[in-house]
Amino acid sequence: MGVHRFSHGDVRNHFYFRIALALLVIVPASISGSNKGDRSVQLTGYKAVRVHYGPLNKMIMPVYINGQPAKLLVDTAATHVMLDADAAASFGIKPSQRGLRYIQFSEINGQELPMSFAQNLTAGNISFGSVLVTLHHSNYSGSGNAHVDGVLGLDVLTRYKAVINCRTKLVFFKVNPGRQMNLASMAAAEKFARIPLRREQNGALTVPCLIHGRSTRLLVDTGAFITTFDDAFLKPLGIALEQTRLSAHFARGAARKISAGKINDFMIGGFKMRPAKFGATALRNFALPQGDKRITGILGLDTLYNYHAIIDLDGMNLFLK
After folding, report:
1. pTM here?
2. Of 261, 262, 279, 171, which Cα lies nearest the Cα of 222?
3. Would you say 172 and 232 are in contact if contact means Cβ atoms under 8 Å apart?
4. Which of 77, 182, 254, 311 is the right S-S partner for 250, CB 3.0 to 4.6 Å?
5. Integer CA distances (angstroms), 97 to 38, 133, 190, in order
6. Which domains are delineated in the chain?
7. Is 251 helix (H, G, I), strand (E, B) or coil?
8. What residues form DSSP beta bridges with 252?
């Protein structure tokens, strides 16, 4: 799986995180099955787009780019829309008409990547109009044979005040700014806990958490297969880590083993999590200083799904139950 992460400095710095299929001991059963008991909920002023989950818990949204069908990974840890360069060419995304090859460049992991415009991006019956995209050569499909053409990032998600229901597999986009909705009240009536989201200076979307009495922050990441912590954060807390056959492949070819550790005392905001095993690896370049707090882990789609997560980018809340 290709997951685009924030690192120090420019919000467009990412790393790629691919998880081997060899061992799934720390992940629940696949979340790609149907949810027979789920009800489709309509939100005032919003239009919904259905997503599906591919292998490795990819949240995939079918879209049209310049009138041609495509698939994008819904990724709350990506700052903007990114497309594979070959896929973009097949969609007719061409050099600038002003004589320059591309309108501008974006620096990612020390590389200057070209940016251009998709003339029209649509999903369901929603047209997002012209969208700025970053182009690069990548293997978004990664493991599991679930092909995607790129990622749908926070630029579009925040512009349309998206509400992402990880359990019912619906993403709502606000199309009528004049219509107000109190999602917090609706969620409270359904016995959800509300956790405030925060947008960090580097663009990361985070929530507070408490593990064995120590406070930190987690990156909310719908593009991540599993919830993973920096092992340097967990070890001093006395959390025993066991080796697994999982591995993480970062940018520039660096590979690191994934361990697993059981966390018994874990809260996200004021919501108490059930004791469970979580991933751990060296996230040294990823753990970002934010005042007296640090981002020391990735809150992935396995946990978001299991706790019926609703990510509200209008009210800036995460709801769990």
Report:
1. 0.86
2. 171
3. no
4. 254
5. 48, 16, 52
6. 46-320 (2.40.70.10)
7. helix
8. none
Q: Which residues touch 125 (CB under 8 Å, ≥6 apart)? A: 47
Q: How far apart are CA 208 and CA 222, in angstroms?
A: 17
CB crowding 39-67: b at 16 or more within 10 Å, else e: eeeebebbbbbebebbbbbbbbbebbbbe
Nearest to 307 by CA among 320, 296, 316: 320
Three-state DSSP state, 246: strand
Q: Which of 300, 17, 78 is nearest to 202 (CA)?
A: 78
Instruction: Compute the distance between CA of residue 46 and CA of residue 163 in angstroms, rounded to an integer.
Output: 9
User: pLDDT tens digits, the chain, 321 residues: what are they?
Assistant: 333 344 333 333 333 333 333 334 444 545 655 555 445 567 889 999 999 999 878 999 999 999 999 999 999 998 889 999 899 999 998 755 554 555 666 665 556 778 888 999 999 999 999 999 988 876 554 444 568 999 999 999 999 999 999 999 999 999 998 888 889 999 999 999 999 999 998 788 999 999 999 999 999 999 988 899 999 999 999 999 999 887 766 555 567 788 999 999 999 999 999 999 999 998 866 666 655 568 899 999 999 999 999 999 999 999 999
Residue with tokens 């809340």, as numbered in its chain: 317
| Burial class, 224, CB count within 10 angstroms (exposed 0-12 / middle 13-18 / buried 19+) | buried
The candidate with the shortest Cα–Cα distance to 195, out of 309, 287, 77, is 309
Q: Number of C-alpha atoms within 13 angstroms, CB side, residue 223? A: 32
CA 109/CA 14 separation, integer angstroms: 7
